[in-house]
Amino acid sequence: MEHHCEGHLSSTGDESLDFVILCIGKYSDLPNIPDFPINRGPEMFDGKVLNSMEYAAMVGDEASEFIKEKKVTVIRLRKSAVDIAVEVATKNGVGHPCSLLFRRVHWLVLEHWNKFTFRNLNRFSQLMIDRPSEGFFVWLLAFPLSPLLLDVHKNGGEYLRGTWPLKKYKMVPDHPFLKQIVSCMSLVLPGNFYDKVREGSLVLKKSQSLSFCKNGLVVDGEDSVVETDIVIFATGYKSDEKLSNVFTSTFFRNRITESSAPFYR
């Protein structure tokens, strides 16, 4: 272990520890750019390819100038992708529409709905779920309360279908609304997301595969090339690689990368 004082190495030594907590910023530094077959990746593209982290790091008016009057395609349907796509659509308008390309649809909610959901993830809501190991009295409470959970499941999805034109834009997810809520994977939409879609400044495209060509993207299900100047990958980070790089020991590197735990190892 190295000990540093005011940025300078002061001493080294071995320490016996019970726990090690790595506070190194798991979701940063190593952007995850998907691999592509030979002659089908970014090297074939005449435009610019970057990760959402690089776009977010632009300061002042740099980002605005970077996307100004450019055709931009954002890859994936998660929080950073949606925020960037709406920002680009707002600045460039219908004259240079932004494309949002994704493989899977998720339930998208507004901020007030997200606050309501997490406010109700409390001890009382736990009583709606039967947990076999908790005993007879917990089951006795869960049995009459379980219809409330089903009500949230059904009415939550129906509310979103009625509020936004999900069917029209093929944005109805395959998985139940409740499944996404209990997995803490709620995706909060900017309030003007579907306004941008309606006016044509934001174009939604669902596809299972894509590849690069000289002037844009070849997308599965599209008859023509999606012409674009800039491709922004909002595909996350290589968090396991960053964690494993902390260790010199092969044993610990493998323990990190082979772990099924999402955060705590």
SSE pattern, N- to C-terminal:
EEEHHEHEEHHHHEHEEEEEHH
Strand order, sheet with most strands: 3-12-4-5-8
- The shape is globular
Distance between the termini: 20 Å
Radius of gyration, Cα only, in angstroms?
A: 23 Å
Low-confidence stretches: none
Counted beta strands: 12
Largest sheet: 5 strands, parallel
Average pLDDT, rounded to a whole number, is: 80
How much of the sequence lies in strands comes to 15-25%
Task: Break the fold down into its secondary structure elements and pairings.
Elements: E1 2-5, E2 8-12, E3 48-51, H1 52-56, H2 62-67, E4 72-75, H3 79-92, E5 98-102, E6 108-109, H4 111-119, H5 123-126, H6 136-163, H7 177-182, E7 187-188, H8 193-199, E8 202-206, E9 210-213, E10 216-219, E11 226-227, E12 230-233, H9 239-244, H10 250-258
Parallel strand pairs: 3-12, 4-5, 4-12, 5-8, 6-7
Antiparallel strand pairs: 1-2, 9-10, 10-11
Structure in words:
It is a single chain. The protein has ten helices and twelve strands. Strands 3-12-4-5-8 form a five-stranded parallel sheet. The protein has helices spanning 52-56, 62-67, 79-92, 111-119, 123-126, 136-163, 177-182, 193-199, 239-244, 250-258; strands at residues 2-5, 8-12, 48-51, 72-75, 98-102, 108-109, 187-188, 202-206, 210-213, 216-219, 226-227, 230-233. With 265 residues, it is α/β, with parallel strands linked by helices. The model has no long low-confidence stretch (mean pLDDT 80). The radius of gyration is 23 Å and the shape is globular.
